[in-house]
């Protein structure tokens, strides 16, 4: 049985736990103390609710971050310095240059592994392949409902309660998008990491009052030719900001623990 550590116990973590493949179990959940009782009630006493990964006395087969960019700042280095595998869903944390450098150094020094989950988007394998031949431009657009953008800085840029037509309210680099919209624009960072980087990847963020889906569109052009990917994702019923596919990408990395790397 593979035993993993989950960071976070929100919408995505719960979805992932409900879909864990056979042969994978949760050993530890890292969460704020006020969530510990709910975690023990939901998962039983075979699972330890802890405040920091350092409270774990064993070596998890994988640490799955499904929490926030802040959690990557708080725990990422400790996990990689321990030589553990860390799969990130809050990939926008890597837009912070000093943190990115510290995590890569920790990974290299201690034979840990930092895995960038594909999350809510698809085509990252093709984008990474295209990069090998040289990419001229990559543009990523995120289109979501007003409910998805609530609680983000979009509230100051557009009237989310009364918007009647689609509006692009942010245009800029992937680095700025990921840092300014930490709960909504991790995909911008993922696309940047797989393609031409945080500063050259162009990002548009759009609110659309006529949709209930999270639509991710990527245009990439380079030596290989061009591609255009559009993915219409269903949000999780428990969090309109978060696409179901993002949770499934975390389930998939768990499946690889039992099925091996070549099984998709
Ligand atoms: N890469 C991608 O494609 C996607 C990434 N995401 C990101 O995934 C993460 C999880 O999403 P959801 O579960 O929907 O969010 P959520 O808000 O429903 O749950 C997050 C949970 O993590 C906990 N948490 C946050 N920071 C923590 C910390 N420092 N220490 C301990 N617990 C902490 C919160 O208390 C909350 O229970 C978010 O950062 C979100 O932006 C979401 C969708 C797509
Ligand atoms: O789930 C999504 O559609 C994308 C998302 O929240 C993110 O990029 O952070």
UniProtKB/TrEMBL annotation:
<comment type="pathway">
    <text>Cofactor biosynthesis; NAD(+) biosynthesis; iminoaspartate from L-aspartate (dehydrogenase route): step 1/1.</text>
</comment>
<keyword id="KW-0662">Pyridine nucleotide biosynthesis</keyword>
<dbReference type="GO" id="GO:0033735">
    <property type="term" value="F:aspartate dehydrogenase [NAD(P)+] activity"/>
</dbReference>
<dbReference type="InterPro" id="IPR036291">
    <property type="entry name" value="NAD(P)-bd_dom_sf"/>
</dbReference>
<comment type="similarity">
    <text>Belongs to the L-aspartate dehydrogenase family.</text>
</comment>
<feature type="active site">
    <location>
        <position position="216"/>
    </location>
</feature>
<keyword id="KW-0560">Oxidoreductase</keyword>
<dbReference type="GO" id="GO:0050661">
    <property type="term" value="F:NADP binding"/>
</dbReference>
<dbReference type="GO" id="GO:0009435">
    <property type="term" value="P:NAD+ biosynthetic process"/>
</dbReference>
<protein>
    <recommendedName>
        <fullName>L-aspartate dehydrogenase</fullName>
        <ecNumber>1.4.1.21</ecNumber>
    </recommendedName>
</protein>
<dbReference type="GO" id="GO:0016639">
    <property type="term" value="F:oxidoreductase activity, acting on the CH-NH2 group of donors, NAD or NADP as acceptor"/>
</dbReference>
<dbReference type="Pfam" id="PF01958">
    <property type="entry name" value="Asp_DH_C"/>
</dbReference>
<dbReference type="InterPro" id="IPR011182">
    <property type="entry name" value="L-Asp_DH"/>
</dbReference>
<keyword id="KW-0520">NAD</keyword>
<feature type="domain" description="Aspartate/homoserine dehydrogenase NAD-binding">
    <location>
        <begin position="8"/>
        <end position="115"/>
    </location>
</feature>
<dbReference type="GO" id="GO:0051287">
    <property type="term" value="F:NAD binding"/>
</dbReference>
<dbReference type="InterPro" id="IPR020626">
    <property type="entry name" value="Asp_DH_prok"/>
</dbReference>
<comment type="function">
    <text>Specifically catalyzes the NAD or NADP-dependent dehydrogenation of L-aspartate to iminoaspartate.</text>
</comment>
<feature type="domain" description="Aspartate dehydrogenase">
    <location>
        <begin position="163"/>
        <end position="251"/>
    </location>
</feature>
<feature type="binding site">
    <location>
        <position position="120"/>
    </location>
    <ligand>
        <name>NAD(+)</name>
    </ligand>
</feature>
<feature type="binding site">
    <location>
        <position position="186"/>
    </location>
    <ligand>
        <name>NAD(+)</name>
    </ligand>
</feature>
<dbReference type="Pfam" id="PF03447">
    <property type="entry name" value="NAD_binding_3"/>
</dbReference>
<dbReference type="InterPro" id="IPR005106">
    <property type="entry name" value="Asp/hSer_DH_NAD-bd"/>
</dbReference>
<keyword id="KW-0521">NADP</keyword>
<dbReference type="InterPro" id="IPR002811">
    <property type="entry name" value="Asp_DH"/>
</dbReference>
